[in-house]
Amino acid sequence: MTLDTAFELAQVNIARLKHPLDSPELKDFVDALDPVNAVAEAADGFVWRLKNDAGNSTDVYAFGDEWLIVNLSVWRDANALAAFMYQGQHRELLSRRHEFFERVKEAMTTLWWVEAGHRPTVAEAEERLLHLRAHGPTPYAFDLRRSFPPGAAQPQPQPEAVHAPDAV
Q1: What is the C-alpha to C-alpha distance for residues 142 and 132, in angstroms, rounded to an integer?
Q2: In this structure, are residues 61 and 68 in contact, taking their beta carbons and an 8 Å threshold?
Q3: Distance between CA atoms of residues 63 and 40, nearest Å
Q4: Paired residues of 17 in beta bridges
Q5: DSSP 155
Q6: Torsions phi, psi of 109, nearest 5?
Q7: Are 27 and 93 in contact (CB under 8 A)?
Q8: Going by C-beta distance under 8 Å and a sequence separation of 6 or more, which residues neighbour residue 85?
Q9: Are 144 and 78 in contact (CB under 8 A)?
């Protein structure tokens, strides 16, 4: 498959914290943030990630909820993202996610193609996530199980998809 370098893959995942970030229950997670982020930034195919002056995004919230933290990044493609996700310390933390985050039934992760050089906002990520929840995987918002090629038709979201659900 030839890569379409006009596009890059944006991803967002949000998680509802079980405890405050400064709690003993989240110490392992918080201590792993800098090392895992460093590995991500050095990974083949990594392009960009949302971060604050401290180098993470733990003070950025989804849907205005301080218990919903955001991980927003851009990658060359889904293979590069998956290669990072399922190796090393990130894989270890992923296997422990239920210690740190609430279990939820609805989609908390979505992917979408952006023009190369575009850096998505949290509002854009929320819109894509709500679209996935309302419509399932489409070229506008999808997941790793059902992806779409770069440049696929990207319909605008339906009006009902832009409202936050009652429970996130």
Answers
A1: 6
A2: yes
A3: 25
A4: 101
A5: P
A6: -135, 140
A7: no
A8: 91, 94
A9: yes
Condensed to tens digits (0 to 9), the pLDDT of residues 61-110 reads 899 999 999 999 999 999 999 999 877 777 777 778 889 999 989 999 99
- Cα separation of the two ends of the chain: 37
Nearest to 164 by CA among 78, 60, 27, 61: 61
Distance CA 1, CA 6 (A): 15
The three-point CA angle 130-154-147 to 5° equals: 75
Q: Considering only CA atoms, which of 25, 99, 15, 96 is closest in space to residue 58?
A: 15
The secondary element (H helix, E strand) that includes residue 47 is: strand 46-49
pLDDT value at position 162?
Answer: 45
Instruction: Summarize pLDDT for 152-168 with one digit per residue, the tens.
Output: 755 555 555 444 444 44
Token pair of 114, please? 């952006």
Phi-psi region of 151 (alpha: psi -120 to 50; beta: other; left: phi over 0): left
